[in-house]
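Blinded run. Sample ID left blank on purpose so nobody reads anything into the name before looking at the predicted structure. Input follows.
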Amino acid sequence: MDAASLFVCITLFASLNYERVLSATLTFSLNDGNEIPAVALGTSLGHLPDGTRVLPVNHSLANAVQWALEAGYRHIDTATLYRVEDEVGLGVRNFLNASENNRQDIYITTKLWNDAHEREEVIPALIRSLEELQLDYVDLYLMHYPMAYKKDGSISLTDYLVTWKGMEDAYNLNLTKSIGVSNFNISQMQRLWDHSDIKPAVLQIEVNPTITQDELIEWCRDHDVIVMAYSPFGAILGRKQDAPPPRADHPRLQTIATKYNKTVPQILLRYLLDRKMVAIPRSTNKERIKQNIDILDFSLTGEEVMELSRFNQNYRLRTPAKWYPHPYFPFEKRNLTNNEIQEIIAHSIED
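Blinded prediction complete.
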């Protein structure tokens, strides 16, 4: 074999091996015996400045879901709140129709919204989600918040322990393979753990280098609960003026990215995987979607993970002040007057 042929063979082998790395699905084991893929496409499209939820146009989200699955994602994260479950289902079906994969190859997470927290409301809410998704079951069903609200938006005092009984009902009916919660604090997690027949398998919370959540994550590790991390980039890639450093051009972030021939967003996602958390990057850009899954062929060192964690400022991207009055509000509260809170509530169009 001449040198040119050898080079072609080596290049082809490297390319095939690289594709194998990308398509390999890194998973974490749940405490119920199931496996959860470690990178999920987030499907919330966010809000406009006036609080109106952004909705997809021309099946933009369905396309994003299909692109993600084609790029090697095997986990899609959605919620009733996002009002896109129909688009998620369409994207999944389009992918399955064009590939040799089947439903069992794809992991779907969705969430119960705050206005369906009575025990008898949980299963009907999940069935509505399944109808939107056009699926027979989801892989993971999460209680989106510990706070219950009535359909008219007023506070309900329904205990999240009551809601959890409905989550257990859904699990026992095989409408979901796993159940968990989102946006619970450590005392709420402990109380739920102490009073549940089926233990939560997952906690979804905001995690990135500027909000490392060390104590809560340590509790989860001690109780074999997997953490899913939303807002994985925090304000590092954003333009929020009040956000603490770093930004994407920080010298240390740039140095680590250069070392691994990766982008800063890829380093931030790998940081979560190396802390044994599921990362949930959001994007509807095809190339960015591909980049966000191209993080399975390297690992950060323990020192690099610790170094990134030193940026911690316990900074939350969004703490909805309109929910401050709820007795189960899970986060720390900013110092606002009642009049300021009422002003926020008056101008909160959705959620």
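Unblinding after everyone has recorded impressions. The two ends are 65 Å apart (CA to CA).
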